[in-house]
Design goal:
The protein is α/β, with parallel strands linked by helices. It is built from 15 helices and 16 strands.
């Protein structure tokens, strides 16, 4: 038997009409209690649950086929999966698995969809209807971190595109599919203390408030990417690592304006968003964690990015989100937080710093980076032990990354040499590092020299993804590459 929200409230109203509130007898009170209980059951056992899912990214050239990947998702006991498109092979592999699925309208289609209902209808007809309901598509996300990853010319199109997609779902009677869009924490201009959470002025009233109205009207979620790792790594002086890992037993941060106490950074970040929504008049919209996680590796100088911390964070996260009774956050106690952990695999084609390619629960060959049960049913004592946390200490060099585009490398070499301080003197004709006369050799020297000279001023070994850090000294003969000490 299925109990619907409307029928529950109708029953409550009927009981209250039959008798004045103070005259309701024990039978009537019991009926109301049972009705409310059934409503709670209906909500918590449906789309709103504390079950933890996983993000299935595909930016790798060595990943398993979708059918095998879905088997691996099952082995992790994930109840949800989010993909970053509407890949037909993946959606086919997810049929009849009972796993709830989130699909995504790609960023590049958002502007066109926002002004074209026919295009929206065709997209839903092609990417949802062929798989639904055998594939349990429950969420359709419009783009990914659009505020962060696109220019402000796209922002006015976000909410109209959400309306178009919702209209398409309604047209095809896909009413169980919720529409949202994932946003990063940089939509806030202020996040500390949490009660001071405020959306940025450039988007608060033009983008966020209309979005919140849409989410409220359609009973959808505010999809949020929450990464305590990045908050901690950018301010290790003031943020304790154990506090960021849900692992501190003594550190408490108190919001001076609300007197709410925080024992971890995750709750602190979430409540900043709750307070920001409240400032715009929407205090009841639920948050869905679209992405969270901790890197299991990274560049040599990216402290804290290791298997120990990744396992600690994600295991503690699962315990927190699946615990009973539900914990919620200090500002929203008892509220379920559905979530997706990022990510299923280490993805070797992701750009950016090394951590970007090391968020996986699994290696591309399907083996686990560390043991984890996303259902929360397995005690830590029964999971395989994790290695100790080890950050690299020693000398490091910066060299051209494998497979880097040679034209781009030439431009990066020119940039590194233009910064002065004799950065590239040793690779000039007749100098110690000129021979062998090769672009990659000269660029590797220039990258190392640049990093060694300017690291303390904010210089990095990145060069738009063309460079990589190494612990192996690339020096040869009389050519000595500058290094940094980590």
């Amino acid at each position: 038997m299925v109990f619907h929200r409307n029928s529950v409230f109708s029953e409550i109203r009927r009981l209250l009409k039959e008798k004045k509130r103070k005259e309701i007898d024990a039978m009537g009170m019991a009926a109301i209690f049972v009705s409310v209980l059934l409503l709670s059951f209906s909500i918590s056992s449906g789309e709103i649950s504390g079950q933890v899912g996983v993000n299935y990214g595909q930016l790798g050239n060595n990943l398993p086929a979708p059918k095998m990947s879905v088997s691996l998702i099952k082995s992790l006991k994930a109840k949800r999966v989010k993909i970053y498109d509407a890949n037909a092979e993946i959606l086919e592999a997810l049929k009849n698995t009972g796993i709830q699925v989130s699909i995504m309208l790609p960023n590049q289609l958002v502007r066109n969809v926002s002004t074209n209902q026919t295009l929206a209808d065709r997209w839903v007809e092609s990417n949802v209807l062929p798989f639904y309901p055998q594939t349990l598509i429950r969420y359709l996300l419009v783009g990914n971190e659009l505020i962060t990853s696109t220019g402000n010319e796209t922002w006015p199109h976000i909410v109209p595109a959400m309306h178009r997609m919702k209209q398409s779902l309604t047209t095809f009677r896909l009413n169980k599919v919720k529409v949202g869009t994932p946003l990063a924490m940089d939509v806030l201009s202020s996040s500390f203390p949490p009660s001071n959470g405020t959306f940025r002025n450039d988007i608060a009233y033009s983008v966020i408030k209309p979005m919140l109205h849409f989410l409220h009207k359609t009973r959808s979620f505010f999809f949020l990417d929450v990464y305590p790792f990045f908050a901690w790594s950018s301010d290790q002086t003031h943020i304790n690592l154990t506090y960021a890992l849900f692992h501190s037993k003594t550190i408490t941060v108190t919001d001076p304006f609300t007197a709410l106490n925080y024992t971890n950074l995750f709750d602190q970040m979430l409540d900043a968003v709750y307070f920001a929504m409240k400032r715009l008049g929407y205090s009841k919209i639920r948050i869905f964690i679209a992405e969270t996680g901790w890197p299991n590796g990274g560049d040599l100088d990216q402290l804290g990015a290791n298997v120990h911390n990744a396992a600690t964070y994600n295991r503690n996260l699962v315990k927190r989100l699946t615990r009973k009774p539900v914990f919620g956050t200090p500002a929203r106690p008892g509220l379920l937080l559905p979530a997706f952990i990022f990510s299923l695999f280490n993805e070797n084609l992701k750009s950016g710093f090394g951590t970007e390619r090391h968020f996986g629960l699994l290696y591309p060959n399907g083996s686990r980076v560390y043991d984890i049960d996303l259902s929360g049913e397995t005690p830590d004592s029964e999971l395989a032990p994790i290695p100790a946390a080890v950050d690299y200490k020693g000398k490091a060099w910066c060299v051209v990354a494998e497979g880097a585009d040679v034209t781009a490398v030439a431009a990066a070499l020119s940039y590194a040499c233009s910064q002065g301080n004799g950065t590239c003197d040793p690779i000039q004709p007749g100098k110690a590092c000129f021979k062998p006369d090769s672009l990659v050799g000269h660029a590797s020297y220039a990258f190392s020299a640049y990093w060694a000279q300017f690291r303390r001023l904010g210089g990095t070994c990145y060069f738009n993804g063309l460079a990589a850090q190494t612990a192996k000294d690339p020096s040869y003969g009389s050519c000595k590459f500058p290094s940094v000490t980590l």
